[in-house]
């Protein structure tokens, strides 16, 4: 049940933001939006405001924004009456491209907002500066440091957590350090010379972190904004590099489908809200990138057709374009079913 609810939440959030991007820009450039729908299949709830029907549908997968002029009428022709300023096809190439691109753009915005929420509201799991164990014969034991001690400063520089402590010790192998140690309310200074660990060439004094000392460290808004941008850019770059490596054969082509994604969402939900939101951020970036690929039926292919229109000075035949998207959609569904089948085999231990 947790997996189902978490999956509906994650997919619903990604789809809502994606469709909201299309909707908001369409409204901004004057396109008449006929329906904003979350979910697919039979309509469960609908509310009409002006020309737009806002609907929630039965199946918690997918969603769509239906705009005037984007679907053929009963005669199979795409309406594009010049007298209708709200028709999508009567907008400039740039305006239509903005409407199409906005969906993927909002997926990146969602990831950015989720990172900010994680850093400012939930906080990042951080180990404190409490020592869990002292290794026998190492510099820390020789200096009289004991499990449960807290190293609060190195050479007078405060170390609020384990990461800051390691950051001060690692670069200074072979150099004498003054550690400010707090133990049962008493504070003392001890001298210690970190030994150089040959494999990584870092200084170590022979201590391990107390696994029970983890806490959630919340960041300020400005720091969270910077971290949100940095994470969004880093994950986007990592995904693009992985795709490039798979295309060139430098890495195995391992693609997870909806079944595997739902499985991972369930695992993250079992751990807690922060891992779930982290996964949602990564999936949202994936969705944004995937939709920009020039694959028929995806937003990227529509942008390609608009680019061709801009170069040719006239649009591609809408009926032919629609046929290409329909064929691409059918192939895409077939590919997803194949990937889902392989996902099930993996989960069942069949390869």
TrEMBL record:
Its cofactor is Zn(2+). It is found in: Membrane. It is a multi-pass membrane protein. Keywords: Hydrolase, Membrane, Metal-binding, Metalloprotease, Protease, Transmembrane, Transmembrane helix, Zinc. Its EC number is 3.4.24.-. The keyword Protease applies. This is Zinc metalloprotease. The lineage of its organism: Bacteria, Bacillati, Bacillota, Clostridia, Eubacteriales. The gene is rseP.
């Amino acid at each position: 049940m947790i997996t189902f609810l978490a999956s509906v939440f994650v997919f619903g959030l990604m789809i809502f933001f994606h469709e909201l991007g299309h909707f908001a820009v369409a409204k901004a450039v004057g396109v008449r939006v006929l329906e904003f729908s979350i979910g697919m299949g039979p309509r469960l709830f609908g509310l009409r405001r002006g020309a737009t029907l806002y609907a929630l549908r039965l199946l918690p997968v997918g969603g769509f924004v239906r705009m005037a002029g984007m679907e053929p009428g009963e005669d199979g022709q795409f309406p594009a009456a010049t007298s209708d300023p709200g028709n999508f096809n009567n907008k400039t190439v740039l305006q239509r491209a903005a409407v199409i691109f906005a969906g993927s753009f909002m997926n990146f915005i969602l990831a950015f907002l989720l990172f900010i929420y994680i850093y400012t509201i939930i906080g990042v799991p951080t180990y404190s500066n409490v020592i869990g164990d002292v290794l026998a014969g190492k510099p820390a034991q020789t200096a009289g440091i004991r499990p449960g001690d807290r190293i609060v400063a190195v050479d007078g520089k405060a170390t609020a957590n384990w990461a800051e402590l390691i950051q001060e010790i690692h670069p200074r192998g072979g150099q004498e350090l003054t550690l400010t140690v707090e133990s049962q309310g008493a504070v003392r200074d001890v001298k210690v010379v970190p030994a150089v660990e040959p494999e990584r060439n870092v200084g170590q004094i022979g201590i391990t972190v107390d696994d029970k000392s983890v806490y959630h460290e919340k960041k300020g808004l400005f720091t969270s904004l910077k971290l949100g941008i940095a994470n969004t850019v880093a994950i986007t770059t990592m995904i693009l590099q992985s795709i490039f490596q798979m295309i060139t054969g430098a890495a195995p082509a391992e693609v997870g489908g909806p079944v595997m994604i739902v499985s991972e969402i369930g695992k993250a939900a079992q751990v807690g809200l922060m891992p779930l939101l982290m996964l949602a951020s990564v999936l949202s970036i994936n969705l944004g990138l995937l939709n920009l690929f020039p694959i028929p039926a995806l937003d990227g292919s529509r942008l390609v057709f608009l680019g061709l229109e801009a170069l040719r000075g006239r649009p591609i035949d809408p009926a032919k374009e629609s046929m290409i998207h329909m064929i691409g959609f059918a192939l895409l569904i077939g590919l997803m079913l194949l990937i889902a089948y392989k996902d099930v085999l993996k989960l069942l231990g069949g390869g």
